[in-house]
Specification:
Shape: globular
Strand order of the largest sheet: 2-1-3-6-4-5
Mean pLDDT: 90
Distance between the termini: 37 Å
Organism: Pygoscelis papua (Gentoo penguin)
GO cellular component, one term: cytosol
Helix content: 25-40%
Radius of gyration: 16 Å
InterPro entries: AspA/AstE_fam, AstE_AspA_cat
Number of helices: 5
Oligomer: single chain
GO molecular function: hydrolase activity, acting on carbon-nitrogen (but not peptide) bonds, in linear amides; hydrolase activity, acting on ester bonds; metal ion binding
Low-confidence stretches: none
Subcellular location: Cytoplasm
Structural class: alpha/beta
Largest sheet: 6 strands, mixed
Length: 175
Amino acid sequence: VDKPPVRRVAIFGGTHGNELSGVLLVKHWQENGAEIQRTGVEVKPFLTNPRAVKKCTRYIDCDLNRVFDPDNLGRPVVEDIPYEVRRAQEINHIFGPKGSDDAYDLIFDLHNTTSNMGGTLILENSRDDFTIQMFHYIKNALAPERCPVLLIEHPSLKYATTRSVAKHPVGKYEI
């Protein structure tokens, strides 16, 4: 099946404000975007949770990486709405809407972990041919360095992660 080419890519850092690798990379690329720009592709580095980054804490009111579900994205904006829910709605507006043809083609969401897992790619859909081929390319480009792929697919699970806004979501974890 012919699919349109990938034209819009976002790189997220700071989904969790205390995971600084992605924050530092995004800030670097916001100042010097030439490193990530490619002809015919728009690449947008984006700081997802700036309040949590400023406080160097995982989140302010709730985990931003768990609120991209239909209930939260459709929630009315009222005074006491949790900060991360409001932020999820803003991100969905900028990079989505989730599940639409207008959504960004690809979102890389950069994270850190204290687990000894090294650089790891997170795959949510084993039937996404584009993402599988991209992961294959990344793994070959990094060889001989190890780069495991973690499949977190579940047939009835609706993903509520920041990256789930994109047509092709990618999580990337580093130690």
